[in-house]
Write a structure and sequence with these properties.
Elements: H1 3-40, E1 46-51, E2 56-59, E3 64-66, E4 86-90, H2 94-100
Parallel strand pairs: 1-4
Antiparallel strand pairs: 1-2, 2-3
The structure holds zinc ion.
Length: 101
């Protein structure tokens, strides 16, 4: 093999090695960055449980729940049983409804 050919092959191998490393580093940075952004977004920490005028609780993760008495907090609920996020409850307020009418 001529000398210039050998150099070219080495160069190609070097580029191949570098690009694999670049791709790996890129993937790690992008996935870690995405995960950090996910953690920073506070809406991923809480599941909002909103109460309607019949006393039903509707969750952020599109489930429904009915409590015989009290709010989720009064029943010592800390985490959503459906999605595992912390519960942020929004009890039904009659005044709020009147303002909308
Ligand atoms: Zn939930």
């Amino acid at each position: 093999m001529p000398k210039s050919r050998v150099r070219l092959t080495l160069l190609k191998d070097a580029i191949k090695m570098i690009s694999i490393k670049v791709i790996l580093v890129y993937l790690v940075v992008v996935s870690a960055g995405g995960y950090i952004l996910y953690l920073l977004d506070r809406k991923n920490w809480f599941c909002i449980w909103e109460q309607d005028n019949d006393g039903n609780w509707f969750t952020d993760c599109e489930e429904g729940f009915w409590l015989e008495e009290g709010t989720p907090k009064e029943n010592n609920f800390k985490f959503c049983a459906y999605c595992g996020r912390m519960i942020k409850q929004v009890p039904y307020e009659e005044e709020k409804e009147e303002q909308n009418v």
